[in-house]
């Protein structure tokens, strides 16, 4: 599978798991904040993302979380400055957590391949 396809598929998986982590009542207080990390780990494990792929996927996840956050917050609150700060915060959190988890999972998979080869 080509790298761009793996990156986009990984970002979709990470964002979907992030959204699903916020859905269960009461449990979402625990799973919601770490949802991007769970999603990044699953994407890195299943797609065997390289270090570069994990970094690019993290940027895509950051944009995929931050842009909708800005649009929704600006529409609901009407304060563009607050919406921008919230969007930047969620972008850094989601993208960073997804990147680190995908990098960890992808490099863990590469280590196993190297050991068996």
Explain how this protein is built.
By secondary structure, the chain is mostly helical. It has one domain. It has 4 helices and no strands. The protein has helices at 3-21, 28-47, 51-77, 80-116. Helix 1 packs antiparallel against helix 2 (28-47) and helix 1 packs across helix 3. The longest helix is centred in the last third of the chain and has 37 residues, at 80-116. The model is unreliable at 109-114 (pLDDT under 50).
Dominant shape: globular
Query: Regions with pLDDT < 50 over 5+ consecutive residues?
Result: 109-114
Rg of Cα set: 15 Å
Please tell me the overall pLDDT.
Answer: 88
User: What is the quaternary state of this protein?
Assistant: single chain
Structural class: mainly alpha
Instruction: Please report the total strand number as a whole number.
Output: 0
Describe this structure in a few short sentences:
This protein is mainly alpha-helical and 117 residues long. The protein contains four helices and no strands. The protein is globular and about 40 Å long.
Question: What key attributes describe this structure?
Answer:
mainly alpha, 117 residues, globular
List the helices and strands and how they pair.
Layout: H1 3-21, H2 28-47, H3 51-77, H4 80-116
Helix pairs in contact: 1-2, 1-3, 2-4, 3-4
């Amino acid at each position: 599978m080509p790298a761009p396809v793996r990156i986009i598929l990984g970002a979709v998986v990470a964002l979907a798991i992030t959204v699903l982590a916020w859905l269960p009542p009461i449990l979402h207080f625990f799973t919601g904040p770490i949802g991007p990390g769970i999603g990044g780990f699953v994407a890195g494990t299943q797609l065997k993302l390289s270090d570069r792929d994990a970094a690019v996927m993290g940027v895509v996840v950051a944009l995929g979380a931050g842009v909708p956050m800005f649009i929704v917050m600006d529409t609901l609150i009407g304060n563009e400055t607050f919406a921008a700060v919230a969007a930047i915060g969620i972008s850094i959190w989601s993208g960073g957590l997804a990147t680190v988890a995908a990098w960890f999972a992808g490099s863990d998979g590469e280590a196993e391949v190297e050991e068996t080869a």
